[in-house]
Amino acid sequence: MTKSPTQRRAFIGAIAGAMALSTLGLGAAYAQSAEPIRIGLIYSKQGPGAAIGQYLQRGSELAVEQAGGKVLGRPIELVWLDEPNPQVSQQNMQRLVDESKVVAVVGGNYSSSALAMMSVANREKIPLILTGAAASEITGKSCSRYTFRTQATVPVQMEGLMPYVSQIGKKVYFITASYAFGQDILRASRALLKKVGATEVGVDEVPINTADYSSYILKIRQAKPDVVVGGLVGGDFSNFLKQWNEMGMKDKIPYAAIAVTDTDFWDVGAQASTGIYVKPWYYNNPKNTAAEKKMTADFEKKYHEPPSDKTWSGWIGMRALLESIEAAKSTDPKAIVTQLEKWKNTEEAFPFFFREWDHQMVRPAVIVGVKKQITDKWDYFDVLKNTSDSAASTEAAFGTKEEVGCNMPPL
Question: I need a surface site. Which of 250, 367, 370, 396 has the fewest CB within 10 A?
Answer without folding.
Answer: 396
